[in-house]
Give the backbone structure.
Amino acid sequence: MATSEYTDEVEIAASVAHSQGQPALESATENAAQQGAPIPVLETSDTTTSSSSVNVSFPKNMPSVVQGTEGTVMTSEHNSTPATPLESSAVSISEVDLPYELPRHSNVSISEDTASHQPTPPEITEEPQGIATTISSAVFTGTSEQSSPKGLLKDIFLEYSSPHHFNDALTLAVMRSGNFETLRLTKISPTKWKAVETIDFHHDGDGMMLIVHSKDGGDEAFLAFTADEIYTMACAEEDTPAEHVFASVKEDNPMSVKMTSTVASSSTFGSGAMDDARGLDALLPLGAMSDWRCAISSAQAFERRFEETGNIDDITQVISHYESAVSSVPPGLDILPTISNILGNSYLSRFKRTGDLEDNDRAISYHQSAVESTPSSHVDLPSCFNNLGCSYLLRFQRTGDLEDNDRAISYHQSAVESTPSGHADLPTCFNNLGTSYMCRFEHTGDLQDIDRAISHRQSAVESTPSSHANLPGRFDNLGTSYMRRFGHTGDLQDIEHAISHHQSALESTPSSHADLPGRFNNLGTSYAHRFECTGDLQDIDHAISHHQSAVKSTPSGHADLPGQFSNLGTSYMRRFERTGDLQDIDHAISHHESAVKSTPSGHANLPARGWFTNLGSSYLLRFQRTSDLQDIDRAISYHQSAVESTPSGHADLPTCFNNLGTSYMCRFEHTGDLQDIERAISHNQSAVESTPSGHAGLPGRFNNLGTSYICRFEHTGDFQDIDRAISHHQSAVESTPSGHANLPRRFNNLGNSYARRFECTGDLQDIDRAISHYQSTIKSIPSGHANLPRLFSNLGASYMRRFECTGDLQDIDRAISHNQSAVESTPSGHAGLPPCFNNLGTSYAHRFERTGDLQDIDRAISHYQSALRFQGTHNFSDVQNSIASYRRGAEANGTPSVRLKSAKRAAMLSSVHDDSRCLIDFALAISLLSEVAGMEQTIHRRHANLHGHSDLVGSAVATALHCNKADLALEWLEQGRCLVWNQLNQLRTPIDNLRVRNPSLADRFIKVASALESYGTRSAPSIPSSHATLSEDVRLQDDTRNHTLRATEYRQLLKEIRDLPDFHDFLQLPKAADLLSSLPSDGPVIIFNIHNTRCDALVVIPGIALHIPLENFSLVQAEQLQKTLQSDLLDHRDVEDGDRAVRRYFRNPPSMSFVLKELWSKVVQPILEVLGYSYHSDPSDRRRIWWCPTGPLAFLPLHAAGIYGSEYQPGSCVSDFVVSSYTPTVRSLNDKFLASSTSSRSTSLVLISQPHTPGLRSIPSTRTETHALEALMKGTAVDALLLEDSEATREKVKAEIKSRSWVHFACHGVQDVHQPLESGLCLHDGRLELLEIMKQQIPNPDLAFLSACQTSKGDLKLSEEVVHLAAGMLAAGYRGVVGTMWSISDMHGPEFAKEFYQYLLKENGSEGLDSTWAAYALDYATRKVRESLGEGDTSFMTWVPYVHFGY
């Protein structure tokens, strides 16, 4: 009886852009939100939207370094942005269900989300008011100017009353206090000029003179300012426009010159806002112009250009000039701490652009110098403390070194303590201290830190005046802190506070304010978090609405736009998880793609912000819904990109590893490819090992690693894996704080591990623990939660397992109830439905077994039609419900292997209880085989996925024959067998008719088919080792993704072609009528179906499929004969399998004659009798026959069946009646027959001999064999080329077989029992493997003679796929192949070959070789060798192995 499946969930990460909003460390923070600085990668389910920024303050009267939004040094709260990619409050993709079916007791593993929240990025912004350095001019002149007004003129334009006649550049000379400076003027129109620099002024009692000077004409005009006029300008309000008129120097020149400018007064420099970095020279005493002062002026010019262009070269120039200034400032000047402070900020600006840690280190060094060189009582010291704390915090966010975060807290604490109560800058200091605590909380999960963060940010809000411009940003940061704590505790009051504060921030922000998009973003994120807790769809609708507003209000090209796109995409992801609406996940992918595309390539913040992670996670979610392999391939590629582009040692790297491992695990669930689960474990292990002890993300990573081990355990059964899973899940639970929102999920996964171990040990304590953990988890999960169906399914499966052990009916009733809840709570069309239906069907079947006659129902399921005698009537509705559930599971969207299991179970039960629909159920199951072995997989993978399904075709055919549907049985035998060979043949099908109708479509088809074949036949990479590089994984993933894309394109092309008139059946599965109309006329095809309920033969002749029951034969007998042949006969020889060498036998081996006699009397003779075949004394009168065996018969010599020795009488063996050949399928024979009708005699033959293959036993007779054949061909029209010893290399052989139509191999041959596709012919430089042979497309192939061992032996696990060398030669295009079923005698090989070719030359003359006579030639050679050997087992073992395939 079928068993239930469990589903596991993995917590996926998703880095979402955060809100960036308010400065973490204050000020600029609102914009932070826009940048989308993701919180590094949300790791776990809690995520936040904090927009905190770090505020770097500048000394009073010192201009600040103003940089753009992308992580720069800011001076004001309004314009700053997040300093690093860390931060961001976005919605994380926390736990995403990863359903997969597990044999017997699988449980749902809720893995963790792998994105990690990054700490709030410090925004180096907002110069705290009042914290400034007062630079005294006494240092330079000896007189105090501390209170003298000063300012500068900027935006200077000169306009002439008529077009100027000079083409040379004008200059503007500035004379004051005996000093002379020159400003360059740039011509912008015929009458208008612009000054490149600014003019600073200082009220020192003197006036100032401006002179316009022309190179050619001398002085043009002049303007004089009195001391009073300078004082008036210095006292003016900020940005006051000014207009002055120059007097002409030349009296005869009536031309006038008007100057317009903007006055920046001392009120600007004294306020502490310091939002302009261009006035440093205004602070310097007149007459102090020097090299270091020039360096500062140059630095300021480059700063201005950097602000406008963002060119990294400009900020590098800024740093260079400031460093020159630092090195040349005379000793004793107290300007040095100020310059050091600005230089540190400049390094931070470049660090945020490049991610180069050396820049951050230098920033710390200069900020440290500023702190150490500033007197303890100096008013600027708090500002220096603040900036140094910000530098440490930024480095912490990059490296994860907690010592840096501790230092940041210490310096920000010092900034708070050294700022007087009531000081205007104290709110900023509180805010930044709160941000430092929040960053540490993100790393450690210590609730005391987030409590402190909230307390300090609350103090920042409360101490800020209601009309203050920074209040909205501080509301925003406080909301973010509450959101962070909510993510950890799940306390709804916290998320309510978060929404309230973010709402206040939004409402108090002007409609045109630059930070408005960030406020929209953060409010949307807080709604998204509440939705995750309550499931209220209104909340996620609000979230989407606000995130849309954030996107719409962010200018195109803005640095924050990628983050806004990412958060909007994440909200759509959340809604998709709740509603299952595919439009939502499509929107999510679209917006996440926009986030990636709108971020500059190579940008340091790209992986940290999680754009790659979020895009990969959204594709992963869609894959889980649609099972489209293109989506999981894209998910892996994007997560690889995140890992690849994240520097070693980066704090976000563990999250990237975690997400990549999760994606591989999802694909493993779909394909079963062990390489994927090995990579999943490897990457999840890297995530755990690279996460510091005590990190808040560590429990989630333990969880995912445990889930990876469970996945591998389900596939391999390695008991150590389940112990490791329990250990890691236990670690996840123990390291999760009490009350954490993810604790129930981690308990659930621990329960899964116990349930799986129970299946191995039967220890009831394990299943009791599992049930207990599942019950606790369900109680703590809100109604409507996306994970609830899997949890119900797990609990139901556990009750069912305990029922199987104890027989307690209450347990099976509970199992049905919980499995029914799982089905009802899963959205229609969801990929997780099939396992839910499977589990429900299984639970109904179990109750039916318990309440009816268990022995009879077991027999019913095992023996199909014979089970109709079952008389039980108890709870028959349970069986009907079981069948219905399996059918719905088979028809639902999901993983093909899970759907196939559902279909098989529905078909098997309906064959007993629902005759009216059982054939429909089997038809669906057969059709799903081609999806389980889809063309998007390598041939290795397809064969692996077909393991365990060989019984399906047998069951279906047995049922069809029971219903007298011989034609349907034939179709199923063709559709369900040799799938891989048929797929390969399909890709190589001639399309001449299509080319005539639509040449371009034909060309596209050929191109895609060729690429698909190339990808499908590529060698399977080995299981990744610990030394495997990411670049190797990326290359392999590129191949996988391209393979999937080509498979999708191929399916689309087929649909397009079939829509053409007269092409509706293009490459469709063949119908019986088509198969019967193309058969050769010189003999029947005999197809066998050996099943546990009945054994049958289908005799296929033109126009008819004749059913012959084999009433005296059974599956058990077939298996016993196969065992006798393999174990008792072949394995008793003392020579290794695979060596073509002289054989010695034990004296009393089991009799081969017994095997041949049984085959004759119970299988072959009944068929020949029905056909009316009679004995022919003249061998030339015999008809041909093709054997197409299945199951165990595929390994038995039907062509030699008969009675031999003393009991022999004419007409008692196969060869007395027919000439035997084999064919993998009817379709293959039809193709070879059709090809032979246009062939002519072959005149080219390549002989390949390897008597002394390096590393293998010598087989000297191969030299005798090929030399004799070379001599035999002389004097005929056949051109024979001999490749021997070192000449017979793999490349040389492949080249020659392409130029010659016949090939004869005389060498070692090996059937690899572990990797059938690595079976091959042993040449001088290695094995020519089956997979390589399959790739060959030979222009005119005719016949291949494989005088080597085991060339048609096949693989027992893939008996229906006919995986051997002879079949590979047929796939390469050869019309006929002579092969061997087991190892052959080196001594007698030359005799077989000689008699074979002599017969052909005798029948066809010397004009060439005709492959249509190959079966007769092999029959003739066999009879000749038999005559020389006589009768007996030694003779049998020599001649019986030789067989002919094809036409």
Remarks:
- The two ends are 43 Å apart (CA to CA).
